[in-house]
Amino acid sequence: MEENFYENEEKVDGYTKFTPTHDGALLIDVLGEHLPEQAAVLELGIGPGKDFKKLSRRYRMTGSDFSQLFLQRYREQDPAADLLHLDARTLETDRTFDAIFSNKALIHLSPDELQQSFNRQHELLSDNGLILHSLWFGEGETAFDNVKLVYHNEQDLTKMLETSFDIVALKKHAKMSDGDSIYVLARKK
C-alpha cells in the first residue's frame, strides 16, 4: 500500500470530495438485517467517516484507519469517537467485536495480505461474529495515483473464507457503475 497517499492533505481532500455520501447505505442495511442494535462493531478504514457516523446511530462503534490524517480529522469532528490506528493487515488490538465492517478499505491489500487480514479478523470476532466487506469486483490489480487497487471475485473470496467463515451473502453491487463492486457477509465458524 502506498502509505503516503493518505497522509497527504491535498490527496485526502480530493479523496474526501470524490467519495459519494450515499455509497455505504446498502452495506449498512445489509448489516442491519443480521446484527442486533448496540452490537460492538469495528470499521476498518473510516476515511472521512461517512459510514462510521451512520453506523454509530445503531451500534457501539470503534473506527480505525491506517491514516493518522483521517483519524485526526475525524477526532476534530467528534472528540469522543472511539478510534484506533490500525493496519488492516495485522489489526494489532486485543479488543473483540461482534462485527467487522469495511467499505472499500481492503482494496489495497494483495490476496495474501487480505487472507492475513481475514485470519486476524476471525481472531477478533466474538462467537458467531460477522464480517461485511465491500471490494472492487474483477481480477488482477491496477493503480490509481500510485496506489495499488486489487480486484476480487466470488471464487477468490470463497476460497479465502471457507475454512473459518460461513458465507451468508456474496453479491455484486454498484459503487460507480453496475457490478463494479462485490460485498461479502460471513459469519465466524
What does this structure look like?
The chain is an alpha/beta fold and 189 residues long. The protein has one domain: 3-Layer(aba) Sandwich (Rossmann fold). It is built from 6 helices and 9 strands; from the N terminus they run H-H-E-H-E-H-E-E-H-E-E-E-H-E-E. Strands 1, 2, 3, 4, 5, 6, 7, 8 and 9 form a 9-stranded mixed sheet that branches. Helix 5 links the parallel strand 4 and strand 5. The model has no long low-confidence stretch (mean pLDDT 89).
List keywords for this structure.
189 residues, alpha/beta, Rossmann fold, nine-stranded mixed β-sheet, 6 helices, 30% helix, 32% strand, globular
Q: How would the global form be characterised?
A: globular
Cα radius of gyration in angstroms: 15 Å
Quantity of strands, as a count: 9
Residues in β-strands, percent: 25-35%
Assigned CATH class? Alpha Beta
Number of domains: 1
Poorly predicted regions: none
CATH superfamily: Vaccinia Virus protein VP39
Distance between the termini: 30 Å
Number of helices: 6
- What is the third-level CATH name, the topology? Rossmann fold
Percent helix, as a range, is 25-40%
CATH architecture: 3-Layer(aba) Sandwich
SSE succession: HHEHEHEEHEEEHEE
The description of the largest β-sheet is:
9 strands, mixed
Helix and strand content put the structural class at: alpha/beta
Q: How is this structure best summarized?
A:
This protein is of the alpha/beta class and about 190 residues long. The protein contains six helices and nine strands, in the order ααβαβαββαβββαββ.
Draw up the topology in text.
Elements: H1 9-18, H2 25-32, E1 40-44, H3 50-56, E2 60-65, H4 68-77, E3 83-85, E4 97-103, H5 111-124, E5 125-137, E6 141-144, E7 147-152, H6 154-161, E8 165-173, E9 181-188
Parallel strand pairs: 1-2, 1-4, 2-3, 4-5, 5-7
Antiparallel strand pairs: 5-9, 6-7, 8-9
